[in-house]
Design goal:
The chain is α+β, with helices and mostly antiparallel strands and 158 residues long. It has a domain at 62-155. 51% of the residues lie in helices and 15% in strands. A 3-stranded mixed β-sheet has the order 1-3-2, with no helix packed on it. A two-stranded antiparallel sheet has the order 4-5. Helix 2 runs antiparallel to helix 3 (82-102) and helix 2 (63-76) packs across helix 4 (104-112).
Length: 158
């Protein structure tokens, strides 16, 4: 077997004010980028196997949560990261198309979880902005996704 190149980024939950700033972990001789709302996307993560020659167990976000988190991430990208924002929007549209057709409950479940956490109002504001960015960039009709998120937000006011 050939050499496997695998890399990853270290991320840690952090407040909006600290986004992107490294958080040092001296005991690990490492640092991690702080990402707002990471607790949302990693809650209910699923154990999965990464296919490598020796196998590697990892936790991945539930697809509905990843979809909604990507909306918030897209809204936070500065103009200098326009390429990454377009990639975020592409991932949102792809995931939404698949989940809408195969597992709409996962979207509703993830949407209902947006009202949890310390920064729920800020998170929802970014999700709404991300929806607008996705609509503007792609021309896609995201009314159903927007309605699902708004219904969940209204079901228990923030």
């Amino acid at each position: 077997m050939g050499k496997v190149n695998f890399s990853g980024d270290f991320l840690t939950p952090g407040p909006l004010m600290a986004q992107g700033r490294p958080r040092r972990f001296p005991n690990l001789a490492s640092a991690a980028a702080q990402m707002p709302f990471l607790d949302y996307v990693t809650r209910e993560a699923l154990a999965t196997l990464i296919l490598t020659p020796t196998g590697l167990m990892a936790y991945v976000p539930e697809a509905g949560r990843f979809l909604i988190h990507k909306l918030a991430v897209a809204a936070e990208r500065p103009q200098s990261w326009a390429t990454k924002q377009r990639k975020d929007v592409h991932q949102v549209l792809t995931l939404y198309t698949i989940l809408h057709a195969t597992d709409p409950w996962s979207i509703d479940h993830a949407a209902s979880a947006t009202r949890e956490g310390r920064e729920a109002k800020a998170f929802l504001a970014r999700i709404r902005r991300g929806l607008e960015i996705a609509r503007r960039q792609s021309g896609a009709n995201l009314t159903d996704l927007k309605d699902r998120i708004e219904r969940a937000a209204q079901s228990e006011s923030l």
